[in-house]
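A.,

Following up on our hallway conversation. Structure tokens first:
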């Protein structure tokens, strides 16, 4: 596939509603809970990359995420990795998954303060529990826990730091030791046509990760992700494209080569016509998902769609949770996998319910992700990288302020309320930085950390100006 701009992801994660007025956010509901089963449903979409837009949840008091630092570095020996890849015998997709899975975690989050939950995947970097994942997997989380695939234990996790513009985050597991780690490869050695395996917590069902085989179909790809209305586009560039069937819940998981080395971090996907777009993290709520029965063939490295139609029964379930965030519609027909005439044994057939064109997944090259992880671990904040927990003022704001950030509500008895802020006030400056919008307020706050006292200037509804030092508290991951 030629390099180019991919259009059309329509992310619909629950966090997208936070920038709207009101607290709790209007329409903030969770999705249907997927029933167990490998690789049913349609591929996911990456949630919106919001230009640091002010979340409405910025006003709520949250569970503290502890800043954890350390001296571990994750350098990539690119020459050694490339050499070992060339010498290693190619593994089957199942063997790749078996080799990589013990170095993964299933990530579970509580979003905001309404009890909504979400799930994704993480890659274990160190035996003491440093984990690489996507930023959007933990975005909006007030609590994070993970289940280590290697030992089956559950750990509480905190955010070491994140880069929301490049969709990378690093977590630290509490009291973890002796964890199996994933083998990090060299993404600069990836070539078009390379066989790869996407591995992750597909559907957010937990347990042993699922996997899907495919090929690299593009390098240095760019995608434009938008919200569900097609607005607020954000770009991710330099991505690896694959026809492996990346799914909801796989975000933060590995794209591995046939030596069992991680060469990318699964981050986004686009469905063919007839598919329902899903975010990379899977949110939960009681529902009646409608998945078809899987076909009888095992997926292999063959070209998807090149074989005869699979023998599975597509789409036999009842519609479940199509339109994420609203709970309407359905995932539609299930996916059937047959023993088609692909390039390898057990190649995937082309009978997929409600899908008429191939799906496509995208992964962040592991070299890029690890460079960001190194920066986060070293505590080097920048315009892109935020270190530690996300600070909040204890207010909600309206999204449409033009002369400042218009306060919509104030958390009772919080620091902002104690300083005298009230609904209708307009914040014009934070810590010496001028504020002319909700986005600008979010950017200004992102320069600080929970516990910092910052000078906040605002104009009340009578036109009087006030300035007070307000202590920031811990909120959801921004």
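Then the amino acids I'd put at each of the 478 positions:
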């Amino acid at each position: 596939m030629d390099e180019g701009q991919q259009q059309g992801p329509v992310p619909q994660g629950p966090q997208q509603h936070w920038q709207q007025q009101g607290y709790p956010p209007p329409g903030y509901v969770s999705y249907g809970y997927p029933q167990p089963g490998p690789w049913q449903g349609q591929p996911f979409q990456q949630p919106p990359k919001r230009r640091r837009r002010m979340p409405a949840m910025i006003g709520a008091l949250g569970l503290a995420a502890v800043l954890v630092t350390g001296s571990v570095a994750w350098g990539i020996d690119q020459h050694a990795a490339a050499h070992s890849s060339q010498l290693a015998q190619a593994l089957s997709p199942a063997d790749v998954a078996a080799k990589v899975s013990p170095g993964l975690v299933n990530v579970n989050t509580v979003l905001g303060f309404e009890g909504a939950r979400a799930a994704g995947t993480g890659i274990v970097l160190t035996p003491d529990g440093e984990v690489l994942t996507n930023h959007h997997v933990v975005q909006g989380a007030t609590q994070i826990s993970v289940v280590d695939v290697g030992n089956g234990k559950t750990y509480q996790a905190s955010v070491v730091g994140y880069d929301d513009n490049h969709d990378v985050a690093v977590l630290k597991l509490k009291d973890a030791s002796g964890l199996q780690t994933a083998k990090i490869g060299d993404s600069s050695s990836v070539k078009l046509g390379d066989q790869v395996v996407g591995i992750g917590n597909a559907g957010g069902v937990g347990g042993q990760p699922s996997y899907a085989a495919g090929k690299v179909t593009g390098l240095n790809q760019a995608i434009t992700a938008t919200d569900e209305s097609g607005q607020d586009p954000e770009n991710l560039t330099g991505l690896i494209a694959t026809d492996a069937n990346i799914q909801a819940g796989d975000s933060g998981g590995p794209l591995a080569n046939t030596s069992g080395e991680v060469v990318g971090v699964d981050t986004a996907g686009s469905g063919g016509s007839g598919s329902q777009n899903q975010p990379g993290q899977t949110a939960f709520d009681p529902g009646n998902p409608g998945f078809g029965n899987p076909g009888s063939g095992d997926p292999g490295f063959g070209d998807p769609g090149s074989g005869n139609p699979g023998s599975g029964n597509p789409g036999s379930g009842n519609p479940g949770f199509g339109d994420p965030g609203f709970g309407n519609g359905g995932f539609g027909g299930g996916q059937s996998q047959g023993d088609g005439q692909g390039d390898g044994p057990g190649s995937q057939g082309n009978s997929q319910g409600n899908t008429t064109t191939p799906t496509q997944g995208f992964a962040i090259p592991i070299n890029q992700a690890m460079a960001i992880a190194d920066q986060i671990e070293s505590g080097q904040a920048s315009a892109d990288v935020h270190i530690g927990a996300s600070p909040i003022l204890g207010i909600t704001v309206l999204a449409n302020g033009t002369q400042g950030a218009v306060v919509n509500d104030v958390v009772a008895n919080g620091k902002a309320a104690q300083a005298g802020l009230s609904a209708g006030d307009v914040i014009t400056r934070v810590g010496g930085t001028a504020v002319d919008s909700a986005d600008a307020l979010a950017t200004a706050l992102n320069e600080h950390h929970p516990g910092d006292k910052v000078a906040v200037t605002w104009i009340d509804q009578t036109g009087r100006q006030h300035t007070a030092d307000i202590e920031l508290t811990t909120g959801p991951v921004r």
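Residues 391-475 form a domain with the Pdz3 Domain fold (CATH 2.30.42.10). Curious whether your intuition agrees with the design.

B.
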